[in-house]
Specification:
60s Ribosomal Protein L30, Chain: A; six-stranded mixed β-sheet; alpha+beta; 6 strands
Length: 131
């Protein structure tokens, strides 16, 4: 069981609280861990009918808000894990990814995964360091 004194859980004030038992953001020392972000709009509505690119852009908006809650930006991210429902979307993912990250890029893992729900096309989590 986690000891709350070893990390601090944070939540962006403008994002819906997760239903499952996890925190959007956890900070320990200068390390910031952002949980997997899904294509959920500010209203809490899941963007199931949107295109891959629309879902990906929402995921990155959510990731950005989580990072900001910990005082970070995309420039502070050193590791990204991306989960795509279809690896055929990797080129589109790379396009959206380049809109948020510049060289030198963070370390990254991209895998095909069965995601929550049949219309979930992408989930992304990240690790960053606060300066």
């Amino acid at each position: 069981m986690a000891n709350e004194s070893t990390f601090t859980a944070l939540a962006p004030p403008d994002m819906p609280a997760p239903t499952p038992p996890y925190s959007h953001v956890v900070v320990t020392g200068d390390i910031v861990a952002v949980s997997g972000q899904m294509p959920v709009a500010d209203s809490g509505e899941f963007l199931a009918e949107e295109t891959f690119e629309q879902q990906a852009r929402q995921v990155f908006r959510n990731l950005e808000r989580c990072l900001a809650t910990a005082g970070c930006t995309f420039a502070d991210v050193f590791k990204v894990n991306a989960y795509l429902a279809d690896l055929g979307d990797v080129d589109s993912f790379n396009q959206v990814y380049r809109e948020h990250f510049t060289p030198p890029y963070p370390a990254r893992t991209t895998v095909q995964a069965a995601l929550i729900g049949p219309n979930t096309l992408i989930e992304v989590d990240a690790l960053g360091r606060r300066s």
